[in-house]
From TrEMBL, chain A:
Pfam families: Amidase
Protein name in the entry: Glutamyl-tRNA(Gln) amidotransferase subunit A
EC number: 6.3.5.7
Source species of the chain: Coraliomargarita sinensis
Keywords: ATP-binding, Ligase, Nucleotide-binding, Protein biosynthesis, Transferase
From TrEMBL, chain B:
Entry-linked Pfam families: GatC
A GO MF label: transferase activity
Keyword Chloroplast: no
Gene3D superfamilies: Glu-tRNAGln amidotransferase C subunit, N-terminal domain (1.10.20.60)
Name used for this protein in its record: Aspartyl/glutamyl-tRNA(Asn/Gln) amidotransferase subunit C
Subunit (UniProt): Heterotrimer of A, B and C subunits.
Lineage: superkingdom: Bacteria
Enzyme Commission code(s) on record: 6.3.5.-
Broad enzyme group: ligase
Biological process annotations from GO: glutaminyl-tRNAGln biosynthesis via transamidation; regulation of translational fidelity; translation
Residue ranges crossing the lipid bilayer per the database entry: none
Keyword Nucleotide-binding: yes
Organism the protein comes from: Coraliomargarita sinensis
Amino acid sequence: MPETYFKTIAELSAVLEAGELTSVQLTQAVIDRTAAVDEKVKAFLSYDAGDALAQAKASDERRAAGKALSKLDGIPVGIKDVLAVKDQPLGCASKMLENYVSPYDATCVAKLREAGAIIWGRLNMDEFAMGSSTENSAHQTTANPWDLETIPGGSSGGSAAALAAGEAIATLGTDTGGSIRQPAALCGVVGMKPTYGMVSRYGLVAFASSLDQVGPFARTVEDAAILLEAMLGKDDLDSTSIAPQGDTDYAAALKEKKGPWKLGVPREFFGEGIDPEVKANIEQAIDWYKSQGCEIVDISLPHSDLAVPVYYIVATAEASSNLARFDGVRYSHRSEEAKDALTLFTKSRGEGFGDEVKRRIILGTYVLSSGYYDAYYKRAQKVRRLILGDFEKAFEQVDAILTPTSPTPAFKRGERADDPLAMYLSDVYTISVNLAGLPAISVPSGFTESGLPVGLQVIGKAFGEADMFAVAHAFEQGHDYHKQTPNL
Amino acid sequence: MSETPHIDIDYVANLARIELSDQEKKKLGGQLDDILGYFEKLNSVNVDGVEPLAHAHAVNNIWREGDEPGPTYSPEVLTGMAPESRDNQVVVPKVVE
C-alpha cells in the first residue's frame, strides 16, 4: 500500500468512513510530508498547519456524529495562490499583492468547504497565472518532483508539484491556456479543465476572463470527477457561470460508460515541434484504445496552428484590462517614490509587476490600441470562431479527441527564460481548447527514458465531461502510470 | 499588419501606465517585435464574413431581478487593505493643487 499521503480521495474516503484513519491523522501526515520535502520542491508559498488541523478536527467531529458531508470530508486540498481563501494571503505569486489578505472565499473554495474538504496552503504559480514553467513567481521557483533540475510546468506548477510530491491529496489550479493540463502532464498527475462556465470564477483573480477556468488536480480520473462535482454550479456572483448541463453524475459515468468509442486524432498535433519520445508515447496510447475496440478516426483541426497567436492576442488584451485594477491605490503595492496621481500608477505598476506580466500588459495594450485593434484583436476573434468551428465539425464524427498534452517533457530550468515565444509554444496543444471553451483532461501516459512523465490529453464536447472522464478513466484502468511516485 | 511592426514602447508603456527602465524598454521592445512578427501567421487565413467570437458561449447582458442591499464588508476592512488609509478613506498623493 502506498503511504497515506499518496492515496486517492476515493481510498481515503473509505478508510475515514471505516474509522481506520482520522482526518487529523491524515492532515498531520500531509503536513509532515510537506515539512520534509517542500524545501526541495518549493511548491508552497505558505501554509497554516494549525488552521488545517482545526478544520480536520471539525471534520472528525462531524464524521463521529454521523454527519460527514461528502467523500471529500476531511481530505486536504491545496489551493493555487490565485484563488481567494478567507483570511489567508492572496498574492498571485506577485510583489504586487504581497500583503493582501482575502476577506472572503472564492465560490469554488466555499463549495469545497461545504463538502467538508480541508483547505490547505497557498501554492506557487507563475505571477498572475502568466507562464508555462512557474519560473515567473516573484517568490520562488518550484521544482518538478521527478527531476528537481526541471520545471513543473505552469502556471499551476505549485499545484501539480505539491500533488506529485505527496504534499496534498488533491489541489486546485486554474487553466487559461493549459495551465492545469500542461503541469499535470509534466508532473505525472491528472489535471482537468472543465467546460467554460461550469465552475464559478468568483474569487479567482482574473487574467483572461473569457478563457479562465478553475479545475482540479488529482491522482486519478475518479478523484478529479469527485472534485469537479463538488465545485460545479451556477453562481449569481459570476455572470458567466452556467447551470450544470449534460450528464453530471460522473461517478456513475465512470462505472457505466465502457465504450468502445469513436476517438478523433488530429494529424496537425503530431507534426513539427513534438518531441519524438512524446510522439511515440501518445501513438502507443492511441494504439491501446484501438486494441480495446475503439474506432480511431483521423480528423483535421485546420486552424490549430493559429491557436497560439490568437490566444496571445485575446489573453493579453483581456489581461491588460483586468490588471488595470492594480494601480497602487486600494490594495496593491504602492511605490514610495510616488509624488502625484500619475506616478502613483506608473511607478507602483513598474515596481510591482514582474517581466512576464509587464510583457503581456504591454502586448495587450498594443493590440487594443487605436490603429491596431482591427488588425490584431478583431482578426484574432474571427480566427477564434474558425477554431471553434473546427472542433464542432470534428465532434460531428467522434466522441472525444486524443492528443499529446505537451509537445515536450519537462525542460530544464532557465532553458526558455529569455525566449518568451518558445515558452508560449509550450501550450500549443492545450490553448485551442480554452479558445473553444471545451472540457479536457490530461492523464499520465508513461515516462521518457530519463524518467520524466508524459501526459495524454482527452478533449470532450462542450458539457461532455461525463464521456471525457469515462474515456480517460478507461485508459487509466488499463495502465499503472498514475500509481508511480517520484523519489524525494 | 502587412510588415513586422516596430513597437513604440514608450507610447504603449505610457498607455498601459507602467514605468519601464531603459534596459526593460530595450529588452521588451525586441521581444515584442518578435512576438508580433509571429502573429503575422494570422494573415494566412481568409476571415471575410466571419463574425468575431468574444466568448465560447453566447453571452448576453445579465439583468438582475432587483438590486437589494445585502450584507457587505465594513469600511474598516476594505480601506484597511489600502497601502495607506485614514478615517475609513484611502490616502493618495494630492491630485488637485
